[in-house]
Amino acid sequence: MRAIARTYPATDGARVVVVIDNAPWHKGALVQAVLHECPHLELYRLPSYSPHLQVIKRLWKILRRCATHNRLFLSVAELKRALWNILYYYQTLRHRVLSLIQKPKKRTKLSAS
Phi, psi (5° rounding) for residue 20? Predict the structure, then answer.
């Protein structure tokens, strides 16, 4: 959070809103101390049990499915290699990543002409 505060300093009353989930470590004394030091930072907590609002969850689901689903890794090095490979793959396909994290579109029925 201090890095966010340094990157986006308080200028002319501007505020920075950081969206977080309700993980217990987001409520600790260290977080409160940083918020006290940097009053222009504001936390916006997502509602409980709302994975559909956490965009990164959609991307992680696809990455896990592609890299680790139904696979046995004999070492941590093999697991890391599989994860790095899928990350490198998606790094080259910006449009694919954007389609994964955008809100799913509702399907419409085709009308008979």
Answer: -135, 165
Cα separations (Å) of 5 from 10, 37, 102, 106? 8, 10, 27, 38
DSSP class of residue 69 equals T
Residue 107 inside a domain? The answer is no
3-state secondary structure of 22: coil
Domain coverage including residue 91: 54-101
In the chain, the amino acid numbered 88 is Y
Whole-number Å distance between alpha carbons of 47 and 92: 33
Q: Which tokens in the block code for residue 99?
A: 């389609």
Whole-structure pTM value: 0.50
Q: What is the pLDDT of residues 75-85, one digit of tens each?
A: 999 999 999 99
Domain boundary residue, one of 15, 34, 49: 49
Whether 69 maps to a domain, the answer reads yes
User: Does 90 lie in the same domain as 58?
Assistant: yes
